[in-house]
Amino acid sequence: MSRAFTPKVVTANALIEGDVVYLTADDRWSRDHAEAELIEDEAHAQLRLLKAEHQKNIVVGAYLADARRGPDGPEPIHFREVFRTRGPSNYAHGKQESRHV
Amino acid sequence: MYEYSDFDEAFVRTRNAQFRAQVERRLSGALTEDEFRPLRLMNGLYLQLHAYMLRIAIPYGTISSAQMRQLAWIAERWDKGYGHFTTRQNIQFNWPKLTDVPDILEALADVGMHSIQTSGNTIRNVTADHFAGAAVDEIEDPRPTAELIRQCRPTMPNSSSCRASSRSGSPVPPMTARW
Fold it and tell me: Phi, psi (5° rounding) for residue B30?
C-alpha cells in the first residue's frame, strides 16, 4: 500500500535578491508562504516543480517542501521551512523585521 | 599596513570586471546556476538560506579608518546598515542583491579591499591577535609574518583547492592547517 502524499509548496530563492519565494496558483513568485499554491496531488507537484525549474532567470534552487492547510493559507511543516518564512533566528532580520518595527 | 601596488590594483580591478561580466551572463541566462555558482563563490558570494552573503577579507584583522568608513558606506548603500565580523576577522554583508555586488566590489577596490577566495576550500584569511603590536607582554609582533602569508596566498594555484581533510582521489595533497 502506497504512502499518503504529503501536500507540497514549490519554493526557491529569488535570483537577484536571494529572498525565499513561493510559487502561487496563478504563477507568481510570492515572498509570503500563505500565498503559495498548496499542491495535494503528486503528479501535479512534479509538473509545478518542472515549471519552476525552467524559470532559471527568476529563481534559484526550486524544490518541493512539505506543507499543510492552515486558516490563512498553507503553513510549513519542517522547522527549516518555518525559519525560511521568518528570517535568521538570532535577531529580527529578514522577513520578520517588518513585524518588529 | 599594506597598501596596494599598481599590480595589485590592476589585478583586483580585472577580477571585478570579470565578475561583473559573469553576473550579466547569469542574468541573461547565458550561464546556468551550476556554472555560475563556483564563479560567485570564488568572489566570496554565497546564496544562503535567506539571502545572498558577501564575505570580505580583512587580512590579520587590520583595517584603516578609510576602509572602515567604506565598509559602513557599503552597508548603508547596498545592505541593511550593518555587517557581521567573523571569527576569522573577515566581515560579511548578509543582504546584498546580486546585481549590486559588482558595484560593491568596485567600492572595496577603491580602498584596497576585495572578496577574492573568501569562500571554498581555501585559506579564507590570515588571522592575528587583535592586540598585535599593542600588548605589553607580546613576544613578537605577528603582523609582518601574517603579511608575508597574505601576499603569497590569494593567487597560488593550490590555494583555491586546499583541504582540511583528505578526500579519496584528490590530486591535491591535504592540508592540515586551517588559517
Answer: -70, -25
